[in-house]
Each structure stands twice: as structure tokens, then as C-alpha cells.
Specification:
The chain is of the alpha+beta class. The protein contains nine helices and 14 strands.
Length: about 290
């Protein structure tokens, strides 16, 4: 689409170039910015020219630049990147599944950025689902030169809303090593086979036995449920079903989103529990 209101374009080379003039906005992949009119936007500031390293594998975890494309992240997770995936980072297998949850073609993956998907903050943002599932932490650059960090689950505050202040830019998302070493899974459902996700649920079992379940797409902002150990079926169903924020739109009613989220969480729980899963309590999955 032609964005007819835009009359200026700047390439950022240093952090000083990130000071926005009135009417300017940051540009990453631009897949959303270029998809519809942007009233009030008169200039773009290109972040990709800062040449941030797309992916950095560190002892403390994985650092993903905001400008890293979804295609680059997926290729790395599948062993096609320049840096090897650590052998004990089993949760990396969730990355291609999350990429597939996007209602987009591989051509979009080659342009769309991880940071852009997170900052757009749609309930169905698959990179939000991934980051929240793995305790992702956002590094945010403020226009005064300072930086701060906050969980991605707190960065996204609602449908299309974030905690970013005026002139702030997402620099990177960091996934901690303890989460990457976990056993994890992602399940999603949509009303149409190739439709936008109506619910995305993730489950994670850490090496210390702690369990984390998250719900996105079905709720307006990410929901994170933490347990000291893998919960029983009734406890998990009550926790997922009791979440606030389930919403209705043309792609699903709130009660449907709530119900399928409970079922998806139950299925993930059984996968994480393995063959020893208890069967003395009726599981919501039995009614799927």
C-alpha cells in the first residue's frame, strides 16, 4: 500500500538517530505499517540499518534482536543458522510451531520482525506467545539514553497496546536458559483450518519441576499461570477457565475461547506428565 502521508525516511545508524521528530515512527519489517493507512505518520525511521546481531547465544540464554526476522529465528531453531542450537535447549522446538501460528506466508516471515510482531501487540501475535511461554524479557531503550527491562508478559498491556512510552524502542528480547532447557509445547486452535488463532496455549515443565502455562490469542493480554509442580487436571482447568480477559469477536465467542483454552491446556498437561499422568480425575480433554 502507498502510505501517502509519509514524506520523510531516515536510516538509523546510531542510537542518537532514534530521536523521533513529530510524525515519525520506527520502521522494522514494515509488514503492518505498509498494510493500511497510517494517518498522522509523516516519516519512517529505519531500525534495520542499525545492524543489530539477529541472534546471540549466550550462557544466560538467547538474545533476539528486535529487528531479527521471523524467518531467521525459525531457520536457527531448525539448525540452519550460523550459530548452533545448544543441545540441551529442548524448548527451541517450540519456535517453528509458533511461527506456523502466524496467519502469514513464508514471504512475510522473511520481512516481518520478531520485535514488530511483539510491539504490535495483537492478541494473536505468535511471537508474543513464544516470548511469554519462555519467560522472555524485553530490553527497552528510552529516548533519554537510559534502558530498562521488563517481562514481555508485562510489555503487552492489551489488544494493540504496550507499555512502551513515547519514543521508546524495543531493542531485544532475551529468553533465559532455564526456560530453553525445559520441556515445552504449544497448541492452537482456529475456527477455520487456515484462520487466525482463536486460542494459543503453551505448557512448560522446567528442570526443577516447576510448571508454567500461558494463554494468548483467547485473551486480550497474555496470561501466565505458574505452579510449583505440574498441577492436577482439576487445578489447571480451574486456573485456565478462571482467567479474566476472554473476549468475543467475529472469529470466536468468549465462552468458546475459554472452553478450548481449558482443553488445550489439559492436552499439554498430559504431554508434559508423560505415561505416568494420573487418570483418577476427569480431564476436560475427555469432552473435547
Amino acid at each position: 500500500m502507498d502510505i501517502t502521508s509519509v514524506t520523510g525516511f531516515r536510516t538509523a545508524r546510531t542510537r542518537d538517530d532514534l530521536a523521533l521528530a513529530p510524525g515519525e515512527v520506527f520502521l522494522g519489517g514494515g509488514t503492518w505499517l505498509m498494510s493500511e493507512p497510517q494517518p498522522g505518520t509523516t516519516g519512517f525511521v529505519d531500525l534495520t540499518t542499525l545492524e543489530w546481531p539477529a541472534l546471540e547465544v549466550r550462557d544466560e540464554g538467547l538474545r533476539i534482536a528486535a529487528t531479527c526476522t521471523i524467518a531467521t529465528l525459525r531457520a536457527w531453531a531448525e539448525g540452519r543458522g550460523p550459530v548452533a542450537v545448544p543441545a540441551d535447549w529442548s524448548a527451541v522446538s517450540m519456535i517453528p510451531v509458533a511461527a506456523d501460528a502466524l496467519l502469514a506466508s513464508f514471504k512475510i516471515w522473511n520481512t516481518a520482525t520478531v520485535g514488530g510482531n511483539v510491539c504490535r501487540a495483537f492478541p494473536v501475535a505468535a511471537m508474543v506467545s513464544l516470548a511469554v511461554a519462555l519467560d522472555g524479557v524485553a530490553e527497552v531503550w528510552a529516548p533519554d539514553g537510559r534502558s530498562h527491562r521488563l517481562p514481555v508478559a508485562e510489555l503487552v498491556t492489551g489488544a494493540g497496546r504496550t507499555a512502551l512510552g513515547p519514543g521508546e524502542v524495543l531493542r531485544a528480547i532475551e529468553l533465559p536458559a532455564h526456560a530453553l532447557r525445559s520441556r515445552a509445547g504449544l497448541r492452537k486452535i482456529a475456527l477455520a483450518e487456515l484462520g487466525r488463532s482463536g486460542a494459543v496455549v503453551t505448557g512448560r515443565l522446567d528442570t526443577d519441576g516447576a510448571a508454567v502455562f500461558t494463554v494468548t490469542a483467547a485473551v486480550e493480554r497474555p496470561a501466565v499461570l505458574r505452579f510449583a509442580a505440574l498441577p492436577d487436571a482439576d487445578t489447571l482447568a480451574a486456573a485456565v477457565g478462571g482467567l479474566a480477559g476472554y473476549y468475543s469477536d467475529s472469529l470466536g465467542a468468549a465462552d468458546w475461547r475459554r472452553g478450548v483454552s481449558v482443553v488445550l491446556a489439559a492436552r499439554l498437561r498430559r504431554e508434559l506428565a508423560g505415561p505416568s499422568a494420573d487418570h483418577d480425575t476427569e480431564d476436560p480433554e475427555d469432552h473435547a
